[in-house]
Input
Amino acid sequence: MKFKRGDLVREIKGSQWRGFVVGSYSTMLTPEGYCVESRFEPGSVHIYPAAALEWDYGKPFQCKHSYREDSTVCEICGA
Output
């Protein structure tokens, strides 16, 4: 996989959505895709094929940590 959960990415064309990878998906038409949560609008998520994204080396990401009830590991960054 090109990206992992917590990686900062941005859309290459169009709106240039910037955020961090919160998940991945695969379909018959998109064998490798990613769910990206906005850095600027927390909770807003878009999905993209891997080819539509690139690394975002902007301001370092500081995770707000999201833990499931039955886990001590952050769902976003793994910390």
